[in-house]
Design goal:
The chain is built from 13 helices and no strands. By secondary structure, it is mainly alpha-helical. The longest helix is centred in the first third of the chain and has 10 residues.
Amino acid sequence: MQNLHMASYEGRYEFVKNKVVTDNKALTSKDDSGRQLLHWAVCGGHMELMNFLLDRGAPYDDDDDSGWTPLMIAASAGRELIVRKLIGLGANINAQNTGGHSPLQYAASKNHHEIVVMLVNNGADVNITDKMGATPLHRAASKNNIQSMKYILECNMCDVNCVNCEGNTPLHLAFEEEHEEAARVLLENNASIDIKNKEGNAPPHMTNGRSMRHLYACI
């Protein structure tokens, strides 16, 4: 069955279709990682194959051995049309894998802005935390993903000063990575410069960068 799962990832529609039509049990067969055909079709971005599998009754919200659902995979891979389809089917928008990561966390981390918008507009928890206590805003700020940050903040439900397991706020991470624009966006949205992490450092203490010191001086 491993070859069949690879075929699904590669989008070999006729091959997968013939196998499933011949033996419908193939639809929910799992590979060594616990992934079904739908997981791999989604991962490869193959909309036609995904629709065929769904029409045959493929579970749209099952997770693999690491807790990844098809929606999580689609959000991480930037598959906008697939994300829209899975949301429409009722996929769990706040599912978390074994690392505690949600679809929104992956979309925010990779700056898939349109997916961030879809997820937030359909009820994604903007304050959901992974096993390290990081929120989608932490992940976006650490990568300087400005569009995603702004939309998450504009929903007016985001805790801009939420701390992770190390006591760092998103602003700590923006300063640490020397992301000046991300830091500005956070400060414009009432991020605190005074919160100290578990090492006793406030955000401005996280960097030696000249531009970041200048930003701090202008606060």
